[in-house]
Each structure stands twice: as structure tokens, then as C-alpha cells.
Write a structure and sequence with these properties.
The chain is built from 13 helices and 7 strands. Helices cover 51% and strands 11% of the residues. It has 310 residues and is of the alpha/beta class.
């Protein structure tokens, strides 16, 4: 019997791979989703979503794309953005299935003209085009600047293409560079994903368990509090801790996931992925501090003896 069968789960509720069917509407993720809906419905050119690793950026965008009306929107998703401007355009062509064009056969200007023709044809059909770039902090500056060129494609009434950039905080730093000032000024919508609160962390875990059909599974309050303590509300770490806590409980044939199971799960993790990890063992700091205090005390005693002897 597998641990999923033991708990009566029809699916793994805490997979690391982002799954929009498990989307939990925490405040920060709900706000990001609502902002994306607003941006595409109102035809704004750029939208940026920024968050630390594991905060749910990809889950948000997958949920957004899953819910899109395919009758109104066509989208291209770029997952490996470390591309030259020409390679980036070719990737867009491939994603949108425009036509198979060799970069050796046409110039970049010809690519843009073909792209504009494609956009105008779809506008006449009542369709909007979205370009979604994940891990956008890895884009070369020249390629980011190319996005500004694409955003210039418009009619008298609307933008022909809308661009969504998703990335880690380094993206914010890159967009603030002087050479990208013009593009940065065109970004009218930006959201920073925050970690979940303790209450949201508990709701997130229970939501995932319910979606997977885990009526037998019971996380104690202490277990839930420990998962929040160690994850600090970062969904990716919540998933890892919750999944390994289930395994620890399974090995004891317990359907109650307790604090001790979370502790066992924590010790299977690479400590460097835990929030607030400095790389210095706290016990080591305590020992060093005590040694320093002892040295200060000894030096003070020696000083007093020398003064009194004088």
C-alpha cells in the first residue's frame, strides 16, 4: 500500500509542479490574478509580476491562462528567455504557430512586419494576443528592449499585443536600469507576490488535502503551526514540508500528522532552502558568544588585580 492509498488520497496534494487545479486564493495571489484579468480586458501594454522563488508566480500565471477565453485570446509562453532579440521573436512565432521562418532567411524587421500582419488579422477576428515571459529576470537587456518595440505595435484604438513579465526580484533591478527607462515607464501594472500568512498557510494545506480527497488526513494545529514556522508561508516549501510530513506519519501508520512528523520532515530538507537561513549554525553563534563573554570576564579580573596591585 502506498502512502497515498493509506490516506485515501486520489492524488498527490503537494506536488512541487505548479498545478492550477490546486490554486488557493490567498490574498496576494488573488490580487495578482485580478490584476491580470483587468490588464488584458482593458488592453494595457505591460504587466509585471515579481516574487521570490517558490512564492507561486508560475501557479498564478497557469491559473490565469487556464481560465482565459480561447475565443478571445491567443497567447505565447516563453519559458527560456535567455535569448537574443531575433531568437526571442522566432520563439514567439513558434508559440503562436505563425509560420516556420528561418532566422537566416529574413531580417528582424521582416519578422516584425510579419508579426504585425498576424496581429492585425487577429484583431479583425476579435482576438487579443498575449506574450507571457517566465523567469524574465534572465532576459538580456537587448531582448527586453525588443519588447518595447513590440509594444509599439498598435492601431488608433488599441494595443495589438500585451506583454506579461514574471520574474524574481532581480527583474525589478534590471527594469530600473537607465537603458530600460522608456520601457519601465510603460509598465502601468505591477504586483509583488508576498508569502502566505499563518492563517493562509493553514487554509492552503487544508485546501490541498480536500482537493485530493483526503478525508482521513488530519493535520494537528501544532503541525500546521510548525509548517508555517519553517516555511514562512512560501508555498513551495509548504508543499515539501507537508508532503514529507505525510510520509513520516505514514511510516508510523498514523492518519494524524503531528508536530513530530513536521520536525522529521524538516530534517530531510536542505537547510539552505529554509527562509531566513544565514548559513551559520545558531548553536555555533551561541558558543562563540559565550567564549567571548568569558574572555571579557577574565580580562576584567586581570585588569582589577593589576589596578589593586598598583
Amino acid at each position: 500500500m502506498t502512502y497515498l492509498e493509506f490516506f485515501g488520497l486520489k492524488d498527490d496534494p503537494f506536488r512541487i509542479i505548479p498545478d492550477p487545479t490546486y490554486f488557493y486564493p490567498a490574498k496576494t495571489h488573488r490580487f495578482a490574478l485580478n490584476l491580470l484579468d483587468y490588464v488584458v480586458e482593458h488592453g494595457e501594454g505591460f504587466c509585471v509580476i515579481i516574487g521570490e522563488p517558490g512564492t507561486g508566480k508560475t501557479t498564478v500565471i497557469r491559473k490565469f491562462l487556464t481560465d482565459l477565453d480561447n475565443e478571445k485570446f491567443i497567447y505565447a509562453v516563453v519559458l527560456t528567455p535567455n535569448l537574443t532579440p531575433e531568437e526571442f521573436l522566432k520563439t514567439i512565432f513558434d508559440e503562436l504557430e505563425i509560420e516556420n521562418i528561418s532566422l537566416k532567411e529574413v531580417t528582424k524587421n521582416e519578422l516584425i512586419k510579419k508579426f504585425q500582419k498576424f496581429l492585425l488579422e487577429n484583431v479583425k477576428k476579435g482576438k487579443k494576443i498575449l506574450i507571457v515571459v517566465d523567469e524574465a529576470q534572465n532576459m538580456p537587456i537587448d531582448t527586453i528592449e525588443e519588447l518595447r518595440t513590440l509594444s509599439n505595435l498598435e492601431t488608433d484604438k488599441e494595443k495589438l499585443v500585451q506583454i506579461i513579465l514574471i520574474g524574481q526580484p532581480e527583474l525589478e533591478d534590471k527594469l530600473s536600469l537607465p537603458q530600460l527607462r522608456q520601457l519601465n515607464q510603460r509598465i502601468t501594472s505591477k504586483v509583488f507576490l508576498e508569502p502566505l500568512t499563518e492563517e493562509e498557510t493553514k487554509g492552503y494545506i487544508l485546501h490541498h488535502i480536500k482537493k485530493a480527497g483526503g478525508e482521513k488526513v488530519h493535520f494537528t494545529d501544532r503541525a500546521l503551526s510548525k509548517i508555517y514556522k519553517y516555511s514562512q508561508g512560501i508555498p513551495r516549501i509548504i508543499n515539501t514540508l507537508a508532503s514529507r510530513s505525510l510520509m513520516a506519519a505514514y511510516l508510523e501508520s498514523s492518519t494524524d500528522i503531528k508536530g513530530k512528523h513536521v520536525e522529521a520532515a524538516k530534517y530531510t530538507l536542505n537547510p539552505d532552502i529554509l527562509p531566513g537561513k544565514t548559513g551559520i549554525n545558531s548553536d555555533f553563534i551561541v558558543v562563540i558568544s559565550l567564549i567571548i563573554l568569558n574572555i571579557i570576564g577574565i580580562l576584567y579580573i586581570i585588569y582589577k588585580l593589576l589596578i589593586e596591585g598598583a
